TrEMBL record:
PANTHER family: IMIDAZOLE GLYCEROL PHOSPHATE SYNTHASE HISHF, IMIDAZOLE GLYCEROL PHOSPHATE SYNTHASE SUBUNIT HISF/H IGP SYNTHASE SUBUNIT HISF/H
Keyword Methyltransferase: no
Pathway: Amino-acid biosynthesis; L-histidine biosynthesis; L-histidine from 5-phospho-alpha-D-ribose 1-diphosphate: step 5/9
Name this protein carries in UniProt: Imidazole glycerol phosphate synthase subunit HisF
Length: 266
């Protein structure tokens, strides 16, 4: 599926739009992997097969993150994107190793609907602006990995291995001003713990900005999804292991959300 074939939801935090459920596939060496607090990775299956299953289950979108991306493996990712695009009828985002316009263009041309940038944007904030101007705001997702350090939410890079001097809230606001169309906010403190999303931080950020937020990090039960939509009013909730290992099935989750009066696409 090519990028121009689907309409991105209007910008704006919260609102009456259907809330999106997004499985995330962390890809390493062509396989889906999952860890806890960004370490201790274990295999979770073939990304193309998983993508097709999620589309059939009713996922609204998918996110693929090449967590150890290098330029040498860019060709591998492009082949995977082409394979996924042939299988899917829902939008999907690709992130990892995108450092310049040419990287993004290659992935979008291969069939990705949106691209996600993280470390490269921190190192070169102008990249956000360049991508937004070249491809449109709606194609640019800024991924932010945040951890609570000494009383502040701090941005981390390189898969969470490197702390920066950027405060999370400041960086997200700057990114919105530069042209980011969506924020994928992952709490490293909550990631893989299955103890629930960081509703406090998500709510705070959502009140600061006017672009959609995808909540990430901490999903362990259907109640956690209900909670993050009710308390933080995010636009989408993303999870990995609870979906990969069949602990939560997307049709069941959507029925549960519907019962709690949260608008979802069934």
């Amino acid at each position: 599926m090519q990028a121009e074939q689907f309409v991105v939801p209007p910008l704006g935090g919260g609102g009456g739009l259907s809330k999106r459920i997004i499985p995330c596939l962390d890809v390493k060496d062509g396989r889906t992997v999952k860890g806890v607090n960004f370490v201790d990775l274990r295999d979770a299956g073939d990304p193309v097969e998983l993508a097709a299953q999620y589309a059939q289950q009713g996922a609204d979108e998918l996110v693929f993150l090449d967590i150890t991306a290098t330029h040498e493996r860019r060709k591998t990712m492009i082949e995977m994107v082409k394979s996924v695009a042939r299988q899917l009828n829902i939008p999907f985002t690709i992130g990892g190793g995108i450092t310049e316009l040419a990287d993004a263009e290659a992935l979008l041309n291969a069939g990705a609907d949106k691209i996600s940038i993280n470390s490269a944007a921190v190192r070169n904030p102008n990249l956000i602006e360049e991508l937004a101007k070249a491809f449109g705001v709606q194609f640019v997702v800024l991924a932010v990995d945040t951890k609570f350090v000494d009383g502040k939410n701090m941005v981390h890079l390189n898969g969470g291995r490197l702390i920066t001097e950027l405060e999370t809230e400041t960086w997200i606001k700057q990114a919105e001003d530069l042209g980011a169309g969506e924020i994928l906010l992952t709490s490293m403190d909550h990631d893989g713990t299955k103890a629930g999303f960081d509703c406090g931080l998500l709510s705070k950020v959502n009140q600061m900005i006017n672009i959609p937020i995808i909540a990430s990090g901490g999903a362990g039960s259907m109640e956690h999804f209900t909670e993050v939509f009710q308390k933080a009013n995010v636009d989408a909730a993303l999870a990995a292991s609870v979906f990969h290992y069949g602990e939560i099935l997307i049709p069941d989750l959507k029925q549960e959300l519907k019962r709690n009066h949260i608008p979802v696409r069934i």
